[in-house]
Amino acid sequence: MEAERLPKSAPQFDDHTTRIGPAAAESDPGSMREIAAAILRSAQRHWMLFWQYFAQYAKVQVGYRGDFLISLFTSFAATVFALGFVIVLFQKNQLRDWPFPEIIFLYGFSLIPYGIFNVVSLNLYDFGNNYIIEGKFDRVLLRPVSSLFQVLFETFRIESFQEVATGIFCMWWGTHRLHVAWPPAKIAMLVFYGICAAIIYVSIFLMLSTVSFWFEDRIGVHPPVWNVIAFGRYPLSIYSGYVRFVLCWIIPFGLASFYPSVRMLSRAVSPDYARFVPVVAAVFLTLAIFLWNFGTRHYSSTGS
What we know:
Low-confidence stretches: 1-25
Mean pLDDT: 86
Number of strands: 0
Structural class: mainly alpha
Helix content: 55-70%
Number of helices: 15
């Protein structure tokens, strides 16, 4: 979206609000209400911008239906091929004490945050090349909107929604074979853990993207970590203790997908780290935003 399509100014606190310290704000309910109202206005503004970005990009994609359908078919074929590999590999050969329907369920849940991440990850994966080396980040910084918001939501990989749909279908099939019910509480759990896991995915690759502020490279450091995603789609109990530690606390793709899955299956595992998933999501997101802001403060323009 071009700059002129964006609002002309960012929301600002008035002078009275900005001069009030924490102690004064606590003793002045009116000031607290003003701050809360300003935060609400900012959230509403960014939510509207998000839908404007998405609608504009969707219109462009629909305008080239042939290209979009080919992209959708290619994306879906890749997902089906990977799923077919899992089916051929484990349908006749049980993975330790994990029956085939549970393997499909685990795989299906992993596709949900992965699909959400893929929808917004296009600019993260190409950030070093498109924004730093090509100089597009200068344009982003001139706009009265958060640079991170713009980079995440300027483009979308809409065809990746099929991964979310495929993941839901795999989970339904697995629970149907296992005779596991889906009460409203479990559906809410699915939504909650799916969002938390997607935040973990985005945060990890956002941190990797910030490396481009200091080391300009067209490929970046994403590819090796990208390949680690596949390890989180299988039961963590099949790995050694060192690999489990890495997949839970260093590159927590396993934590994001495995422990929510077993909780939804009502299967007991020890230790059960499902309660740490939202905590890890919040910590990684906070760290990613901090690194992004630190990188933007030390960004030097290309001068072109």
